[in-house]
Amino acid sequence: MGKSGTLVFCAGETQVYTIEQLMRASAELLGRGSLATTYKAMLDDRQIVCVKRLDAARLAGTSKEMFERHMAAVGGLRHPNLVPLRAYFQAKEERLLVYDYHANGSLFSLIHGSKSTRAKPLHWTSCLKIAEDVAQGLSYIHQAWRLVHGNLKLSNVLLGSDFEACLSDYCLSALSHHPPDSSAYEPPETRKLNHQPTAKSDVFSFGVLLLELLTGKPASEHPHLMPDDMMKWVKLIRDSGGGDVEDNRLVMLVEVAVVCRVSSPEQRPTMWQVLKMIQEIKDAAVTEELDGTS
Question: Which structural domains are found in the chain, ordered by start?
Answer without folding.
Answer: 3-100 (3.30.200.20), 107-289 (1.10.510.10)
